[in-house]
Amino acid sequence: MMAIETAMSSNDGSNHHLVHSDDPMHPANHICTLCAKFYTLGWVTGTGGGTSIRHGEHIYIAPSGVQKELMKPTDIFVMDFNNREYLRRPNVHKPSACTPLFLAAFTRGAGCCIHTHSQWAVLVTLLVERDFGKDACFEIEEIEQIKGIPKGRGKQGNLGYYDRLRIPIIENTAQEEDLTDSLEKAMEKYPDTYAVLVRRHGIYVWGDNVHKAKTQCESLDYIFQLAVEMKKLGLLWTNK
Ligand SMILES: CSC[C@@H](O)[C@@H](O)C(=O)COP(=O)(O)O
Ligand SMILES: [Zn+2]
């Protein structure tokens, strides 16, 4: 069991106790460990990308514009999910610009949301044609790793080998937070999806908990890399 300290708030309002724990699975520790791992995969280099965790009514958020692989638990912001107020605000930084997008995932029941700038995700968005007036969507089938993706919210189990994986693609905006509207629309239009690609930018992947968000993000990245290589070889992603 995760042991989150419940000591009294500190007098300076920093609420240090919210991010201080010896438990490696405490969200403040876990975000830092995950981002260090994701950096080695090229998912969060150059300050891009990030990860946020919901634990009960507390949302743990990384600071904006920092080297995500070097963060310390004391750099982490904590928000109250119900009233959207910050319980802890380290004063040297601003919270991640991805915060409204992470909140959109938590509002749909996610326990963790990962944003990557993976080049495989970006390349896939460039390979799916932009058809004005139509939704863009990456589709692939008959790849074993598809079985690593859940069927959908409220549905039991994962997709099968013969199921088609569909990940909607939204257009990028100049500011990260301006993606929120189109991300929410894609979530409504594709209620089974656990991920949304952002053209020329990356991907948002969420899961019921940290373990699921991480493994889904890994499965998708594997599939995107495969899809890019398939395209180079002239192989089709779907049968029809
Ligand atoms: C390399 S800057 C990238 C940012 O603009 C953004 O896309 C991003 O993913 C990270 O935003 P941040 O506010 O640092 O958490
Ligand atoms: Zn980004």
TrEMBL record:
<dbReference type="GO" id="GO:0005737">
    <property type="term" value="C:cytoplasm"/>
</dbReference>
<feature type="binding site">
    <location>
        <position position="117"/>
    </location>
    <ligand>
        <name>Zn(2+)</name>
    </ligand>
</feature>
<feature type="binding site">
    <location>
        <position position="98"/>
    </location>
    <ligand>
        <name>substrate</name>
    </ligand>
</feature>
<dbReference type="InterPro" id="IPR027514">
    <property type="entry name" value="Salvage_MtnB_euk"/>
</dbReference>
<feature type="binding site">
    <location>
        <position position="115"/>
    </location>
    <ligand>
        <name>Zn(2+)</name>
    </ligand>
</feature>
<keyword id="KW-0486">Methionine biosynthesis</keyword>
<dbReference type="Pfam" id="PF00596">
    <property type="entry name" value="Aldolase_II"/>
</dbReference>
<keyword id="KW-0028">Amino-acid biosynthesis</keyword>
<feature type="active site" description="Proton donor/acceptor">
    <location>
        <position position="144"/>
    </location>
</feature>
<comment type="similarity">
    <text>Belongs to the aldolase class II family. MtnB subfamily.</text>
</comment>
<dbReference type="InterPro" id="IPR001303">
    <property type="entry name" value="Aldolase_II/adducin_N"/>
</dbReference>
<dbReference type="GO" id="GO:0019509">
    <property type="term" value="P:L-methionine salvage from methylthioadenosine"/>
</dbReference>
<protein>
    <recommendedName>
        <fullName>Methylthioribulose-1-phosphate dehydratase</fullName>
        <ecNumber>4.2.1.109</ecNumber>
    </recommendedName>
</protein>
<keyword id="KW-0479">Metal-binding</keyword>
<dbReference type="InterPro" id="IPR017714">
    <property type="entry name" value="MethylthioRu-1-P_deHdtase_MtnB"/>
</dbReference>
<dbReference type="InterPro" id="IPR036409">
    <property type="entry name" value="Aldolase_II/adducin_N_sf"/>
</dbReference>
<keyword id="KW-0862">Zinc</keyword>
<dbReference type="GO" id="GO:0008270">
    <property type="term" value="F:zinc ion binding"/>
</dbReference>
<dbReference type="GO" id="GO:0046570">
    <property type="term" value="F:methylthioribulose 1-phosphate dehydratase activity"/>
</dbReference>
<feature type="binding site">
    <location>
        <position position="201"/>
    </location>
    <ligand>
        <name>Zn(2+)</name>
    </ligand>
</feature>
<keyword id="KW-0963">Cytoplasm</keyword>
<comment type="pathway">
    <text>Amino-acid biosynthesis; L-methionine biosynthesis via salvage pathway; L-methionine from S-methyl-5-thio-alpha-D-ribose 1-phosphate: step 2/6.</text>
</comment>
<comment type="function">
    <text>Catalyzes the dehydration of methylthioribulose-1-phosphate (MTRu-1-P) into 2,3-diketo-5-methylthiopentyl-1-phosphate (DK-MTP-1-P).</text>
</comment>
<feature type="domain" description="Class II aldolase/adducin N-terminal">
    <location>
        <begin position="29"/>
        <end position="228"/>
    </location>
</feature>
<keyword id="KW-0456">Lyase</keyword>
